[in-house]
Automatic annotation (TrEMBL):
Keywords of this entry: Hydrolase
Protein name (Swiss-Prot/TrEMBL): Alpha/beta fold hydrolase
Stored PANTHER family: ALPHA/BETA-HYDROLASE (PTHR43358), ALPHA_BETA HYDROLASE FOLD-1 DOMAIN-CONTAINING PROTEIN (PTHR43358:SF4)
Keyword Transit peptide: no
Gene3D superfamilies assigned: alpha/beta hydrolase
Positions of the AB hydrolase-1 domain: 76-176
Any one GO MF annotation of this record: hydrolase activity
Length: 290
């Protein structure tokens, strides 16, 4: 997730005033951004056949994905990328799970990759995108189990949606935040800025410019609704974007069915890169477990 880079705008606020800094930070979190060049890798680069799919979120935003079919599989895994990322970022875990025997759907959240522009946020509007992806899977494979694997913002979206959509059978959430306020506060402290009143100012600026409040995006408040369905939380001890205490708070709130895997010495979303084959094997074992 690239939230830390975006929140460097808070440094401007130290000079120009907290109010201006809050507006800039809100824009970096929720404003539209696309790379200057939209080149990207595809499943071709990793030797996996895929089908380009498009589907539409409830508010009309066209979304793009890759369908990695595994005929005969009884599970479809939806993979969710992080903030300011795209589905190409998931070309490790997605094809890895496909090779492990699962059908996989990888897709771009709104405003990223090949998906159309639309109102963006930090895991608020993006919930509509995952809901649409679940609808697509349910339509194409009505008899299959639907599982979700998410990273960073995608992990938070996975928790928020699974908490209210019982079609999701199990969730792997890697480096999720427990609440947005905590993410912004951690970024402010990292930039040697006072979290208060800055967090409140960014919250208000986000509501003014982008139409949602931080209290509407609190996975820790709803994660218990996933139980008793299996939930695996993964987090690195050295995460400088979303401190590891977020994972502990989520696990404490989750209750039955939740497993917490803390990986020593790794940064944000670093568990996969610490041991790629081991990560895929453990994820596949968790998804298969009955």
């Amino acid at each position: 997730m690239r939230t830390t880079t975006g929140l460097a705008a808070l440094g401007v606020g130290a000079v120009a005033g907290l109010g201006v800094g809050a507006l800039l930070a809100a824009r970096q979190i929720s404003g539209p951004q696309r790379p200057a060049l939209d080149y990207g890798f595809t499943p071709f680069e990793v030797g996996v056949d895929s089908e380009d799919v498009t589907f539409t979120a409830a508010d009309g935003i066209r979304l793009a994905g890759w369908w990695l079919d595994r005929p005969g599989s009884e599970q479809v895994v939806i993979v969710c990328h992080g903030h300011r990322g795209n589905k190409a970022d998931m070309l490790g875990i997605g094809p890895g799970l496909w090779r492990a025997g699962f059908t996989v759907l990888m897709f771009d959240f709104r405003g990223n990759g090949a998906s159309a522009d639309g109102p963006q946020s930090l895991a608020h509007y993006e919930q509509r995108d995952l809901e649409a992806a679940i609808d697509l899977v349910a339509e194409r494979r009505p008899d299959a189990e639907i599982d979700v694997v998410g990273f960073s913002m995608g992990a938070a979206v996975s928790i928020l949606v699974a908490a209210r959509d019982e079609r999701v059978a199990r969730v792997i959430a890697d480096s999720s935040f427990a609440d947005v306020r905590g993410v912004v506060a951690a970024a402010a402290r990292g930039l040697r800025l006072p979290p208060m009143p800055l967090v409140d100012l960014v919250d208000r600026a986000t509501h003014l410019r982008y139409g949602y409040r931080f209290h509407e995006v609190e996975p820790v408040e709803v994660v218990a609704a996933i139980a008793p369905r299996p939930l695996l939380l993964v987090h690195g001890t050295d995460d400088s974007v979303i401190p590891v205490e977020h994972a502990h708070r989520l696990a404490e709130a989750a209750g039955e069915g939740c497993e917490l895997r803390i990986v020593e010495g790794v940064e944000h979303c670093g568990a996969y890169f610490e041991d790629r084959p081991g990560y895929i094997a453990r994820a596949a074992e968790f998804l298969r477990r009955r």
